[in-house]
Amino acid sequence: MGMGVGPVVVWWLLLTMWPSAASAGPAEHQGTLAKALAGLSGDRMLADVARLSARDFNGRQTGTEDDLRSGLFVAERFQSLGLHPAGSQPLSATSTGPSGQAALSQPWSMTEPVSVTRIGDTPQLELFSGSLTISTHPGTDYLPILDSPPVSVTAPVVFVGYGISDPASGFDEYQGLDVKDRIVLFLRGKPEKYPAQVTHADKERAARDKGAVAFLTVTGPVMSAYESRRGMGTGPLAYYGQSSGGSRPTLPGAWISPALADRMFSAQGSAKEGALREIQEQLNRTLAPKSASTDVSAQLKWNSTQASGTLMNVLAVIPARDSSAQAEAVLIGAHRDHFGRQAGLLFPGADDNASGTAVLLEVARVLVQSGVKPKRTILFASFSGEEQGLLGSKLYVRRPSRPLGSTVAMINVDHAGIGNGRLTVGVVGLQKGIATEAGQLAGLGDKLDLFGFFPGGDHVPFKEAGIPTIAIVSAGAHPHFHQPTDTAETIQPEILQTVARYVLALTWHLANAQ
């Protein structure tokens, strides 16, 4: 969906009047912003992160009772702050809220059915090479793909590079290989010189079409610029193979560590330690396939179950003061879902994304307490389903609580609790000067790293619908990304404070620009 005449006019006004907007208001208005910024509490946000990532929410897997209770937690906080509900349905998915009170009756939520898949508690992955057996441990050496079907298979492993089969472009990593009834191993991502986009689903489809019975995937030690910018590590990641979140992948699979991949390459002395890096560097440099059979067989064995559940977004607003601008809205979103309990491991999801949820709640709190009456409606959205293919944000774009054509910007907050003290900000659909000026308002002008489009996150459906977006993550390494070690103990309250200051200043200006 593209932008209509309304948003174009709105953004022409915002962009042309931006240089004077921050200073045009009375000193009292600026003093109110300064007071609101000073009122932000890193300790309060850290407490919310600890609460959401605690065992009683069990990892907040989309569609489960655990995630519904986390939605009630957010809705109760919105209600206690005096925000207005902005959903379409009463919160009645559970009989009581997390504090034991009756479920909220006001329309705070937006829901739809969703599939819930869970990997059993005792998965197995073993490697065999001649008389050598390599035992592995879930979480450190590997993790099953979370929507994998049940599997019990033992087969030889064939390395297929990045797993790309594109004969038309002259790059087919399956050429000359027989992978029928084999397990294929491929690298995450794509070679730097390969021009086309390729997804995990594309790679899985190619493996299935070639007759493979399962797959292994690994993040190579040579990170792309985007992966480095997002601070991603190379360990095995919790991950859903299907972007739709509704159907099970054809092939079972697992994400393995680079160290385990190196052990596979060197199991019979066929390659030295560090072989994966060497192979990846050659692929990136030459775009010449390096596929080959290994001397290793793998056994994959686990159970998985599938059930029906309910996805729930929670929505609230601070209404606009100007009735003529009532339809215009600035949306602040953060997903609260994570992976739940999988393969015998709990995924607490503190940085991803209890941190963003805590920022959302804290910005809402100080805005309400400031007494500000914004020119435009400020809409707060706690999305679920982000980890299963952005299901919650896609649902909102299909059924918006405020017209998309009058949504002047969507601000997405994710991974806001760990880093180096800087902010990584992706700006689409508006001038980067707006993001820079907001940083100056927040006293963070020297801590912003500005980029264009981020390919992952709940801002993506809005960008595809023609809405300007600003994606905000804390810069630096996020070593616990999609891992069981993503706990509240790793969160830095000063990082939460930095992110919240920026989100507050950005929201304040976008909601009040003339």
What would your notes on this structure say?
The protein has 514 residues and is α/β, with parallel strands linked by helices. The protein folds into 2 domains: 5-117 and 306-512, Aminopeptidase (3-Layer(aba) Sandwich), CATH 3.40.630; 121-302, 3-Layer(bba) Sandwich (Glucose Oxidase, domain 1), CATH 3.50.30. Helices cover 31% and strands 25% of the residues. It has helices at 5-24, 27-38, 42-52, 65-81, 200-209, 225-229, 258-265, 275-286, 350-370, 391-398, 432-441, 459-464, 493-512, and strands at residues 84-85, 89-90, 107-119, 124-129, 132-135, 142-144, 151-159, 165-166, 171-172, 183-187, 214-218, 253-256, 292-302, 304-318, 329-335, 340-342, 345-347, 377-383, 407-413, 423-428, 448-451, 469-474. The strands form 4 sheets. Strands 1, 2, 3, 14, 15, 18, 19, 20, 21 and 22 form a 10-stranded mixed beta sheet that branches. Strands 5-4-13-7-10-11-12-6 form an 8-stranded mixed beta sheet. The protein has a two-stranded antiparallel sheet with strand order 8-9. Residues 1-26 and 93-102 have low confidence and may be disordered.
